[in-house]
Amino acid sequence: MREIDPIRNPSEALLSAALHRLATGSAQNAPADVGARLAQEFRRHHVRRRRARTALVVSLVASLALAAALLLSLKPVRQNAPTVAHEPTQVVAPSTGPATQSATAQTQASQTSRKAAHAAASRANENDFVALDTYDPATTPGELQIVRLELTGADLRLVGAPVAEDLSDRRLLADIVVGNDGTPYAVRLVR
Amino acid sequence: MAERLSDDQELLRQLAKGNESAFRTLYERYQGRIYRFALHMSGNAATAEETTQEVFLALMGKAKGYDAAKGSLAGYLFGIARNITRRAMLDSAADLPLEDDGGERDEFAVAGGMDVLEELSNGELLAALRQAVLSLPGPYREAVVLCDLEEMSYQEAAGLLECPPGTVASRLNRARAMLKKKLSKQPSRVEKCVR
Fold it and tell me: What is the ipTM of this complex?
């Protein structure tokens, strides 16, 4: 409250005193039920948020599973096509030929990709890949795939990737090692 | 002050994570000032209650919307309260008391000006003063509410109103002059008897 000399400035002093009485004479706090209502709303708000977060994780895992399933469904076509196409070649010239070499190269590439995925998951700390809690060292190379996805930092954090909070809203490119069932085992941030 | 700022920030972090006791602490810390501000600005307990509620709902919904670099949490909350109060007052503009500067009661103006305050009973005085404060234009009313009723320093009020302290001081002087003028037009007890 401003100090006013009542002798030199009586009207100012009177007004100050009256304002002070008005301030002290008015209700000082919001009614208690406002606080109770807000506390209740706070609880509801966070239950809703938790549910939304769980739904997000579930949908993320489901989309990873879907991506893995799609990759797996494409895999036989990729592997079988060259085999069928080059069987006659093998009969005619079983030793070597350009087509056979190409098929072998593709098969090797596929195996390399799987091996790389397994190696990536198992050597998590040595490489850029970070092993997730779900990683099972007992998985065999044939059960793993690397899936490249663009997700927000927040989504990646939900999966378990070490993403700083200030990148929560940024879309990041990441390689995710997933099993046949879509379970993510390791993650590597690409960009 | 700095301690409180960092404490506020920590409480906000906890609040964003869903910690209810952090929310309760912040509510207890600021609800009184927000409620009184809205009450004195609107003159209506229901509006004050609603404003308090909306301010804290906004805080729980957008705890990350507060940027400590831009000012104190109190300033942030008062900013929300100001906007809500203004909106409420615009919505109920028709119900607001009109400026009573007209000559209708000039005949009761007392030569002694503020001396009439001494003759009014406490209840009459508070009612007259409340009415006078409510009839002040928004920026002047804010200055009176923050500096005279909430007893904030010019510096503090300036931070909340986002203007220089000098502006707050001049608005307050002008507001007090308006209040005195309005109150001097109150009929004295003698005049009421004659009436």
Answer: 0.73
